């Protein structure tokens, strides 16, 4: 147990934040032990993996930060067609994806190089380039902080939505995700529907791609337009892509012919929030040490000494500006703490 523990390296914005209490959890027994401690029973809790999708609004968290650090990857079932792989929540997501791709197991290649840890992936239902976590998800095991029970969740129980799950809504901070099981394909079906992947494969000179080539294309794209959190504080995409009725999209299309949108569910279109923000004039904007990345308007960055309030204030200005210009509401994807 640590007192006044710095969380600078536990949030990818690189914010200068401290927790009143913190505990590292490398194993289930450590989690069971901490639930019996006075600090746990008296203080509010914050479950943290890599902190890659959160924004601390204040520089001091008045509570207990539970830092998940368990490790392990194992095959739990295998057939001629597929393989089930169980992964500890504390494993690095990008490293896990790389290992699966190099093993020839398909399904995760479009999710390459996303920062963070495996346990946070189902909470957020992470997604990129036409694929979401739920597409390869089989089950997960979590520890109930209220009862001390181990609980298994199937896909339906997780209530996955767009960048959301039951662990981000009604069960927020109640369950600690310990492991996630993925169902991967030994005979992969490539998802190349996202235009820039095809373009990057062409640039790479690849005409018959496999999962390794698709993964590399995704990595190239991400590196070309997204800043490395180790070099420039950020949490990736700050806003969700808004979904609007097709009639709204058609009206916008008549006024802005180059607007970017993709079919969503029936009668609806998902707009590219980055396009909206850029067209509203925010790309490359900087106020003090809080700014909008010069290559991707969807990414808010910390140039050094920005506070969480600085970044949040900028986000709210952007939100208001987009609403005023396009009549579209964009909401944060990051978790505000």
What does the model show?
By secondary structure, the chain is of the alpha+beta class. The chain folds into three domains: 2-68, 2-Layer Sandwich (Uridine Diphospho-n-acetylenolpyruvylglucosamine Reductase, domain 2); 73-185, Uridine Diphospho-n-acetylenolpyruvylglucosamine Reductase, domain 3 (2-Layer Sandwich); 233-336, Alpha-Beta Complex (Uridine Diphospho-n-acetylenolpyruvylglucosamine Reductase, domain 1). It is built from ten helices and 20 strands. A hairpin with a 3-residue loop joins β6 and β7 (82-88). The protein starts with a strand and ends with a strand.
Features:
Uridine Diphospho-n-acetylenolpyruvylglucosamine Reductase, domain 3; five-stranded antiparallel sheet; 337 residues; 3 domains; 10 helices; alpha+beta; Uridine Diphospho-n-acetylenolpyruvylglucosamine Reductase, domain 2; 27% helix; Uridine Diphospho-n-acetylenolpyruvylglucosamine Reductase, domain 1
In short:
The chain has helices at about 30-35, 40, 95-100, 120-125, 155-160, 195-205, 210-225, 245-255, 275-280, 310-325; strands at about 1-5, 20-25, 45-50, 55, 60-70, 75-80, 80-90, 125-130, 130, 135-145, 150-155, 175-185, 235, 245, 260-265, 270, 285, 290, 300, 335. It is of the alpha+beta class and about 325 residues long.
